[in-house]
Amino acid sequence: MKPEPPEHFIEFGTRRIAYRLQRGMRKHMKIVVSPDLRVEVFAPDKADEEKIAAALQKKAAWIARAIDKLESFHPLPEPKRYVSGETLRYLGRQYRLKVENGLRRPPKLLGKFLWVWTDGKTDTQMIKRKVNDWYRKRAQEILNRYLEACHRIASRHGVPAPRLAIRSMRRRWGSCSTRGRITLNVKLVQAPLHCIEYVIMHELCHLKHHNHSKAFYSLLTRCMPDWRHRKELLSQFRIS
């Protein structure tokens, strides 16, 4: 993807809806409300900004309904307290957090539990750091491995090799820069593996087509024929 453009806003009643405007070689304006509740507007290069804003204002009710519908499917999760018994997700499955007093050692997944050992079971900030470190290590291992596997397929269609960055992102599963770097959300390891593959393949295809054109989706379909099913499954997960 292109570097993320600045946010603009439209008003609808008491609501202020943010959107990002991207211009390109296209004839008509297109509005996309993503499963992560992000609003993107794709407009022709020479379109007047005031006319774009006016057209969006006419669509404000539709945009608000689309956001509300998606939000109702995936209510925001309760903030984690990092105490024994809490549910954690890893590769699409649910596990329970098990906090025990003991020697400091790395967290470990055993059966249906993620075990965390700490000097103090009430030190939730320490437990949070240990859990996040565990997720980051798993993300480094899994996302690198599946990037390599997905690129073996994409390279057959002329997709160049990317550089990978892994970090925490508030609203996106992944992004792709025009300089050949793919950034993946560390929280992506909470989703099932075939969703992880979809996000990676989606971003790989952006290395060749830095837009959401017909050519982009044609390439994505050749690389991953069932991407629509995977995308729909991913939409059931919210970035917490």
Task: Give a description of the structure.
The protein has 240 residues and is an alpha/beta fold. 36% of the residues lie in helices and 25% in strands. It contains 6 helices and 11 strands. The chain has helices at 49-58, 60-73, 124-154, 193-206, 214-223, 227-234, and strands at residues 7-12, 15-24, 30-33, 39-44, 87-90, 93-101, 108-110, 113-118, 163-167, 174-176, 181-185. The longest helix is centred in the middle third of the chain and has 31 residues, at 124-154. The two termini are 23 Å apart.
In short:
The protein has 240 residues and is α/β, with parallel strands linked by helices. The chain has six helices and eleven strands. It folds into three domains: 7-73, no CATH class; 87-134, no CATH class; 137-234, 2-Layer Sandwich (Zincin-like), CATH 3.30.2010.10.
List keywords for this structure.
single chain; 240 residues; alpha/beta; Zincin-like; 3 domains; four-stranded mixed β-sheet; 6 helices; 11 strands; 36% helix
Please outline the helices and strands:
Blueprint: E1 7-12, E2 15-24, E3 30-33, E4 39-44, H1 49-58, H2 60-73, E5 87-90, E6 93-101, E7 108-110, E8 113-118, H3 124-154, E9 163-167, E10 174-176, E11 181-185, H4 193-206, H5 214-223, H6 227-234
Parallel strand pairs: 2-4, 6-8, 9-11
Antiparallel strand pairs: 1-2, 3-4, 5-6, 7-8, 10-11
- Average per-residue pLDDT, rounded, comes to 88
**Beta strand %:** 25-35%
Helix content: 25-40%
Backbone CA Rg: 20 Å
SSE sequence, one letter per element: EEEEHHEEEEHEEEHHH
Query: How large is the count of helical segments?
Result: 6
Quaternary organisation of the protein chains: single chain
Main sheet characteristics = 4 strands, mixed
Distance between the termini: 23 Å
Overall CATH class of the largest domain: Alpha Beta
Q: Kindly identify the CATH topology of the largest domain.
A: Zincin-like
Structural class by SSE content:
alpha/beta
Unreliable runs: none
CATH architecture field of the largest domain: 2-Layer Sandwich
Number of domains: 3
Overall form: globular
